[in-house]
């Protein structure tokens, strides 16, 4: 006898292999055993597929007391610790057990397979600092002071209270507030910082820079393959990643990239985390889409590996190195990343900046540099949009218009040749053949035009898409720095009016300096990588253009030589 169940709620299928349910609908279950929160069955319309187990009540059971059921584990997206949420309608659903609801990070030693464990803060920890910007004495490392670049919190337990404080932003949804920048600048951050978490800013020839990665590496993305699960009822594309520093290949789905992006975007408010290629609800398995996405992911990966901070991030290293088949290790590293305490205001505690003579920043100069960069990004964004539109339109004309026009010319020459063939004179045969060859040459040139955008214009547009993502990030990064600068100006005004102690205002300025150092370092990295990328891409574009016109010239020269013997 078939197992029966009744639908408690409406459910609309959004992915292949799922079926829709209507409230009170009676279903036949293929099995009472759910698979990661999903059941398989047949609805009243005879459709067979998967649906959430918590949306149905098997026969003989009491309905749940709550008005709405919790969605099955991992559907449709994993829980995030911060404000980032992947967009709905994803082309990669969250329905497998790498994202189940168990908190494996709480298990002993469950800190991921790719990076070392650290001792608890309770005793004997090496290279672990407690940093605080609060107004009580701060605990340094065991028997040592603060690490370089972090100011001591102003005041102490017995310091006199100030009669004025720097006000909080009225807009509690601003990036400055949500990023934790405000709390850090106002001295409300406190946490333990491990040596491995420290992000160092150094003074380079162009000003503040992120300290270079001592072990640089690259990672290729190859061989996208279609794979299935749930006995072939669900399909997805897996990409092979081969990091150069391990040489060990791993396979990742787009949703794994999406999860990583979410974690990094939340953790690093003053770093431009490159955007992923856009999602697509339909046509996900078409060859052109898969190829375009792979190229977009390759650019994304290049920028991740090239960034001195992002490349060394624990979550990114876990993503690159955790074996695809080690499910438990993946979950452990994933949960560790999601439980990271050095986010928000505490993130800024991890930034170590230059100290000593000549290392201080002139805030007016910083403000001028940031304003200049803001104007630069606005202009670059406008020009990138214009170039992208122009390139896209030109590519469309090449694929359709130019090909059609050249082949129309070729067809006309062919008609002329066919007309001349009506003349049976022997001395005209060579001319007829030469004109027919010219027709074929123009037909071939039309095909060359149609194929050319893949070689030169498409790579340019791929690069522009990546940089449009970066340009979209910088307004928020600049907003955090501007917010910190506003607090400094306010504290200085309070000091001049005798309403705030100088020591407290200096603490605010020191913390603003940390944010300013990080912002300038990120700006310098952006310019450095921009020059590298656009130099390389423009060289590639012009080289491909030259090869293209050489092919066209070759076709025309071949046709011309046919007339030599006429």
Automatic annotation (TrEMBL):
Gene3D superfamilies in alphabetical order: Arfaptin homology (AH) domain/BAR domain, Phox-like domain, SH3 Domains
Subcellular location field: Cytoplasmic vesicle membrane
SUPFAM superfamilies, alphabetized: PX domain, SH3-domain
GO cellular component: cytoplasmic vesicle membrane; plasma membrane
Binding site for a 1,2-diacyl-sn-glycero-3-phospho-(1D-myo-inositol-4,5-bisphosphate): 253, 255, 293
Residue ranges, compositional bias (Acidic residues): 90-100
GO biological process: cleavage furrow formation; endocytosis; endosomal transport; mitotic cell cycle; plasma membrane tubulation; protein transport
UniProt KW keywords: Cell cycle, Cell division, Cytoplasmic vesicle, Endocytosis, Membrane, Mitosis, Protein transport, SH3 domain, Transport
Boundaries of every SH3 domain copy: 1-61
InterPro entries assigned: AH/BAR_dom_sf, PX_dom, PX_dom_sf, SH3-like_dom_sf, SH3_domain, SNX18_PX, SNX18_SH3, Snx9_fam
Segments for region (Disordered): 54-164
Positions with biased composition (Pro residues): 61-79
Gene Ontology molecular function terms on file: phosphatidylinositol binding
Domain PX: 217-327
Membrane-protein topology: Peripheral membrane protein
Protein family per UniProt: Belongs to the sorting nexin family.
Protein name: SNX18 protein
Lineage of origin: Eukaryota, Metazoa, Chordata, Craniata, Vertebrata
């Amino acid at each position: 006898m078939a197992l029966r169940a009744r639908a408690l709620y409406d459910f609309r299928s959004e992915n292949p292999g799922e079926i829709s349910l209507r409230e009170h609908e009676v279903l036949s279950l293929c099995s009472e055993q759910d698979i990661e929160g999903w059941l398989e069955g047949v609805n009243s319309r005879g459709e067979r597929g998967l649906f959430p187990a918590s949306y149905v009540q098997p026969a003989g059971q009491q309905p749940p007391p709550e008005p709405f059921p919790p969605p099955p584990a991992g559907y449709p997206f994993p829980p995030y610790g911060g404000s980032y949420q992947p967009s709905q309608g994803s082309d990669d659903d969250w329905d497998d057990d790498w994202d189940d609801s168990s908190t494996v990070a709480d298990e002993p030693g469950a800190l991921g397979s790719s990076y070392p464990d650290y001792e608890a803060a309770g005793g004997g920890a090496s290279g672990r600092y407690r940093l605080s910007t609060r107004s009580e004495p701060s605990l340094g490392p065991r028997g040592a002071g603060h690490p370089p670049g972090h100011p001591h919190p102003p005041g102490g337990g017995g310091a006199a209270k100030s009669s004025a404080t720097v006000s909080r932003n009225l807009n509690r949804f601003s990036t400055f507030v949500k990023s934790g920048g405000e709390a850090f600048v106002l001295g409300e951050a406190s946490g333990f910082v491990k040596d491995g978490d420290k992000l160092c800013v150094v003074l380079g020839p162009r000003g503040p820079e992120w300290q270079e990665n001592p072990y640089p590496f690259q990672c290729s993305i190859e061989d996208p393959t279609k794979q299935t699960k749930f006995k072939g009822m669900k399909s997805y594309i897996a990409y092979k990643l081969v990091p150069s520093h391990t040489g060990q290949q791993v396979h990742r789905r787009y949703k794994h990239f999406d999860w990583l992006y979410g974690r990094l975007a939340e953790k690093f408010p003053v770093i431009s985390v490159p955007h992923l290629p856009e999602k697509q609800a339909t046509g996900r398995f078409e060859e052109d889409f898969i190829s375009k996405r792979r190229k977009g992911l390759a650019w994304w990966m290049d920028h991740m590996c090239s960034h001195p901070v992002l490349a060394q991030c624990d979550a990114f290293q876990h993503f690159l190195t955790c074996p695809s088949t080690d499910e438990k290790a993946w979950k452990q590293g994933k949960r560790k990343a999601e439980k990271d305490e050095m986010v928000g205001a505490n993130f800024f505690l991890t930034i170590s900046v230059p100290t000593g003579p000549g290392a201080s920043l002139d805030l007016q100069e910083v403000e001028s540099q940031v304003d200049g960069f803001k104007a630069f990004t606005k202009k670059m964004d406008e020009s990138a949009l214009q170039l992208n539109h122009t390139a896209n339109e030109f590519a469309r004309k090449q694929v359709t218009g130019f090909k059609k026009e050249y082949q129309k010319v070729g067809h006309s020459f062919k008609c002329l040749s066919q007309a001349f063939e009506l003349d049976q004179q022997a001395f005209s045969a060579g001319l007829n053949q030469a004109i027919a060859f010219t027709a074929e040459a123009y037909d071939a040139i039309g095909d060359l035009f149609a194929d050319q955008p893949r070689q030169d214009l498409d790579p340019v547009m791929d690069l522009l898409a990546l940089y449009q993502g970066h340009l979209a990030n910088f307004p928020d990064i600049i907003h955090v720095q501007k917010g910190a600068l506003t607090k400094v100006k306010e504290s200085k005004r309070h000091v001049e009016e005798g309403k705030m102690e100088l020591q407290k205002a200096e603490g605010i300025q020191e913390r603003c300096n940390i944010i300013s150092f990080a912002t300038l370092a990120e700006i310098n990295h952006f310019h450095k990588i921009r020059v590298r990328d656009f130099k390389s891409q423009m060289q590639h574009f012009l080289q491909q253009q030259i090869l293209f016109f050489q092919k066209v010239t070759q076709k025309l020269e071949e046709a011309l030589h046919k007339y030599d013997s006429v």
